Automatic annotation (TrEMBL):
InterPro entries: Archaeal_FAD_synthase, Cyt_trans-like, Rossmann-like_a/b/a_fold. Keywords: Nucleotidyltransferase, Transferase. This is Cytidyltransferase. The keyword Transcription does not apply. GO terms for molecular function: nucleotidyltransferase activity. SUPFAM superfamilies: Nucleotidylyl transferase. It comes from Rothia kristinae. Residues 6-131 form the Cytidyltransferase-like domain. Gene3D superfamilies: HUPs. It comes from the Bacteria. Pfam families: CTP_transf_like. PANTHER family: FAD SYNTHASE.
Amino acid sequence: MTIGYAAGAFDLFHIGHLNILREAKQRCDHLIAGVVSDEMLELTKGRAPIIPLEERMEIVSHISYVDQVHPETVEDKLETWEQLHFDVFFKGDDWKGTDRGRDLERRFAEVGVEVVYFPYTRHTSSTKLRTALELLSREAQVFNA
């Protein structure tokens, strides 16, 4: 049985998230979705999520492609592997060819984990949704002033 791991914030869940989980499930028998904790998002991205961890985990747990949900509370993906022992790690291709991506591939290769990249959904992202929400909020403030 092949165990796959796909990690993400899954904040403001959108089609890109669904696509990654769908594609990942097609390449493994058991898919674990790692949902990055609020604290880790603040540490790594410099901002808190819109949707809290418990709610994001609840949403992701109800996606039919997901067999298991794991709260990701450490920055080092190898530490997560030590807890879960997955065979394949799925990541957006925005990491492919980067120093961080090459380092991840090297470290995972040492423990026999394959890294598979999926196309990043450029037309929809949580960042774009967050920006749109901020703009709408500003417009509402001006309109209501």
